[in-house]
Amino acid sequence: MTGFTTLLYKELLRFWKVGFQTVAAPVLTAMLYLLIFSHVLENRVQVYETVSYTAFLVPGLIMMSMLQNAFANSSSSLIQSKVMGSIVFVLLPPISYTAFFAAYVIAALMRGLAVGLGVLLVTLCFTSLEFVEPLWIMAFAILGGAIMGTLGVLAGLWAEKFDHLAAFQNFLIMPLTFLSGVFYSIHSLPVFWQQVSRYNPIFYLIDGFRHGFFGLSDVSPWQSLAVACSCQIVLSAITLRLLHSGYRLRA
Amino acid sequence: MIPAIRVRQVTKSFSGLQALAGIDLEIGQGEFFGLLGPNGAGKTTLISALAGLIRADGGTLEVMGHDVRTDYRNARRKLGVVPQELVFDPFFTVRETLRIQSGYFGIRNNDAWIDEILSNLDLADRADASMRALSGGMKRRVLVAQALVHRPPVIILDEPTAGVDVELRQTLWRFVRRLNEDGHTIVLTTHYLEEAENFCARIAMLKAGRVVALDSTPNLLRRFSAHTVRLRLQGDAALPAGVAGQVERKGSYWSLPLDRYDDLEPILARVRAAGCLIEELEIVKPDLEDVFVKVMNQGGQP
C-alpha cells in the first residue's frame, strides 16, 4: 500500500508545488471566458427559460477546466519523467502496474477537482447558482476527472516527446471539449451537428454535470452516466493492458 | 548459498540489433564484481534487464534467487541500481527525493538511514536544497543515495564515476567499499579500468552481447598480461642478442617479458657479460588495460 500512497503523494506534491501554474492559471483562464462570453451573449442567448446565459455557462466552464487539467496532469507528468529519464525512480521499485495506474489517475482527478472548485468559487462572484441535484454534480465531476486522467496516462504512455502530446492535446482534447456544449446547448445546432455531438463523450459529461446544477439537460443524466461509465471502463481496460505489457515503459 | 545474481542464457534484441546474445553469469553474495566492455557491449542492457527496466527476449534472470519477471516485487526489493544517466526529479529537495524513494519501496520513517547515507556521501548540508540547484556531482551523489534507501543486498553501479571529480570519486569508493565490507554485493561497470583493477575481485568482460572473459582479477592479469622489464643501456647501446626471447624496442628503451621475478637475474647477468652498462631499469606490472585490449582483439581466447 505504501508504494501506491507514496506515488500518489508525489504526484499531488508535484502539481501542488507549482500550483500557481497548475491551479491558479486555469482558474484565471476560465474566469476570462466567463467575463467575455457573458458580456457578449448574456442578453442574446437564452438556453433554458429559467436560467440566465451566465449561469448556464458556469457548469460548462467548470467541467471544461476540470477535464483539461486532469488530462494535463497525468499526461505531462508522464511525458516529463519519460523525457527526463526520472521515470526510472518509479520503475525500479516494486510498484504494481495497477498501483501505478491508480496513483496517476487519482492525482489527475484531484488536480481537476482543485481547479473545478477554484473556478466555482470565482464564478460565484459573478452569478448565483443553484445546486438542484448535488449527487449528479459530484458523480460527473469525479467521472470526468477520472476519464481524462486515464486518457492522460494513455497519451503520456504513447507519446515519446512533447510534440506528440501537444498534437494529442490540440487535435483531440481541445476540439472535443470545445465542441461539447460548454458554450451552447446542442439543441441550438443544426440537426447534423446535433447528431455529431452525440458521438462526443465529453458532451455527456458536461450535460450531466449541468443537470446537477439546474435539473435541466439536453439528454437524460442516466444516459450520460451510462456513456461516462462505459468510457471509463474501456479506457481503463486499454491503459491497464498497456501498463501490464510494459508498453513504452519497459522495452 | 543462493547467488546474488544469476543470469542464464539471456538474449535481447532491439529492432534487429542483438544487444545480448546468450549471457550466462553468476555473481556470489558479497562479491565486488566488475562488468567491463566497450560501449555497446551490452552492459547497460544486462543491468536494465536485471532491474526490470527492459524485458529479456529469452533466458532467466534472478536477484537473490527471485526471478525478475515472475517474482519482481522481491527481486526489486533486493536490488539497488545507480543509473548511468544523470537523472533527477526537479520538483523536490534532496530529502524529499529520498523519502519518496523510500516510500516506493514501502518504507516509512526512514530518516535515520537517510541521514546516514547523506553523511557518508557528504550530502548532509545539502539535504534541504532543491534538486534543481545541485551541481552535476551532487546530483550523482543523490542518485547513489536513491539506490540505497531500501538497503538492498545487491547494488549495481553503472559507470558511477563518469565525469566525476576526484573528491566525489574518493568519497564514493570509500562508501562503496564499506558497503561491500558490510556484506553488500557490488556490481560495477566502468571505463576506468584502474578502478576495476583496484576494487573488483572478479571481472567479466562483455563484447557484442557475449561474455568473452570471466575470471578473478589476478587470474585475468596473469593470463593475458605479464610483467615486463624496461631498460636503457649506456650510450643508447643495442641490446646484445640472446638476452631474452621476445625483445621489443621502444625509442631508446628495450622491453622484455618477465614471467617470473627469478628470470630477472639471468637477464641481468647476460647483459653484464656482453659488457653493457644499464643506465635505467624498471619493472612494469601487468595492467587490466592490457588485458582488456587483448581480450577485445582476440575475442577472449587466451
What does this structure look like?
The complex is a heterodimer of chains A (about 250) and B (about 300). Chain A is mainly α and about 250 residues long. Chain A has 10 helices and no strands. Chain A is globular, with a radius of gyration of 18 Å. Chain A starts with a helix and ends in a 6-residue tail after the last helix. Chain B is α/β, with parallel strands linked by helices. Chain B has 2 domains: about 5-220, P-loop containing nucleotide triphosphate hydrolases (Rossmann fold, 3-Layer(aba) Sandwich); about 225-295, Alpha-Beta Plaits, CATH 3.30.70. Chain B has helices spanning about 45-50, 70-75, 95-105, 110-120, 135-150, 165-180, 195-200, 215-225, 265-275, 290-300, and strands spanning about 5-15, 15-25, 30-35, 60-65, 65, 80, 155-160, 185-190, 200-205, 210-215, 225-235, 250, 255-260, 280-285. In chain B, the strands form 3 sheets. A 6-stranded mixed β-sheet of chain B has the order 6-7-8-3-9-10, with helices on both faces. Chain B has a 4-stranded antiparallel β-sheet with strand order 2-1-4-5. In chain B, helix 8 packs across helix 10 (about 290-300). Classes of the chains: A mainly alpha (about 250), B alpha/beta (about 300). The interface between A and B is medium-sized, with 28 and 33 residues.
- Contiguous low-pLDDT stretches of chain A (5 residues minimum) are none
Main pleated sheet of chain B: 6 strands, mixed
Corresponding CATH architecture of the largest domain in chain B: 3-Layer(aba) Sandwich
**What is the number of beta strands of chain A?**
0
Shape of chain A: globular
What share of residues of chain A is helical?
A: over 70%
Structural class by secondary-structure content of chain A: mainly alpha
Overall number of domains of chain B: 2
Rounded Rg of chain A: 18 Å
CATH topology of the largest domain in chain B: Rossmann fold
Mean pLDDT over the full residue set of chain A:
94
Multimerization status:
heterodimer
Please identify which CATH superfamily of the largest domain in chain B we are dealing with: P-loop containing nucleotide triphosphate hydrolases
Rg measurement of chain B, Å: 24 Å
Strand portion of chain B, in percent? 25-35%
Number of helices of chain A: 10
